[in-house]
Amino acid sequence: MAWGLASRTCEFAEVQRGTGGCCRPLMFAYWGRRGPLSQLSLELAHVIAARNDLHCTISVSKQNEQFDKFNFLHEDLFAIDTYNYQAFLCYMHLRNLRRNLTQRLLCDNARAFVSMMPHMWSPLTASAIRRAGVRHIAVIHDANGHPGDRSGLANGWLLREAAVADHVITLSATVAHQLMDAHGISEKKISVLFHPDLNYGTQLGSGERRSGPLRVLFLGRVLPYKGLDLFVDAIARLRNDGVQVQIGVFGEGKIKSTTAAALSALGAEIENRWLRDDEFKGILSRYDIVAASHREASQSGVIAAAFGAGLPVVATPVGGLPEQVTHNATGLVAKSATAAAFADTIRMLAKNRGLLAQLQREIIARREERSIQRFVDKICDIALCQQI
Prior knowledge:
Layout: H1 12-15, E1 26-30, H2 36-49, E2 56-61, E3 77-80, H3 85-89, H4 91-107, E4 112-115, H5 122-131, E5 135-140, H6 155-158, H7 160-164, E6 167-170, H8 173-183, E7 190-192, E8 214-219, H9 228-240, E9 245-250, H10 257-265, E10 269-271, H11 280-285, E11 289-292, H12 301-308, E12 313-315, H13 321-324, E13 331-333, H14 339-351, H15 353-365, H16 372-384
Parallel strand pairs: 1-2, 1-4, 2-3, 4-5, 5-6, 6-7, 8-9, 8-11, 9-10, 11-12, 12-13
């Protein structure tokens, strides 16, 4: 199946030929406050700032947890207020934002606005983008709300951006199919890309063999669809079979009392809170593999962080995870989303350190395929081509 413009190329040099004055053909926007998209947007900003063939504007919220790190952009930064209490409730603020957004796009001579993730205000600012006469590209991460994730209640509203955008980018074919089947988005309007690696400063592993028990990490927000109980059950099965593994659970969210008791019995390292971005490096460096024990998924920022640190991933075969984790190359995909199958898959790495080293080497060998540079190139191809 062909997906939109994902393979089409453009000549960026043509874009830079303007009528004089400022020319920033693209505006990339992430208006969220925290999470993996903050890190992805920061890495994207650095890649774009280093280019000589394309000048862009980056729009982020002043309330973003990493906002100060975007200061290097200087005049290429378009900062907005999103989480100020009065600003959120004030109609006048939203009206001013729409006006300022239109003016900035016109001043930039922009040709496309790329929303890196829908924000609650995205459907309300789409008219400002149209008024500036630029293409509206929306990166959609989830077609449906995740079970147990309260933010999913707003998913229907957020997907209005996909409906009004000129083009949609997804990070997995799974989400693309869901957008078509459940939300009526035309296949011609969708391009499927990939989730680029997230680099939190951890050095990619060299594939050397480590002694001692296999160290397995469960990372990220603790939500029902992430399958923490499945993970704990799988580890308990391995321990009962005499397989030596050490585990860590890091992330914010409610852990059931029974699961917490099981984790304590397993001697798990636990940090049940929101993690700062500067903590990921130390956490990832202490483990051998990352567990993605999801019962449902679109794709995973945790997997992207694991690959950025050179860590293989053991994943369940749900949603877009098998697209993101290449079995026997960058990780292992369990045969089913059950504790028994997940335990059997981890067992393979605990018993075969040569396989673990092989996976680590393959992650390094394939990193260009998952790079933020390639991701930016693909988005530019899509956003700046003459046809949509």
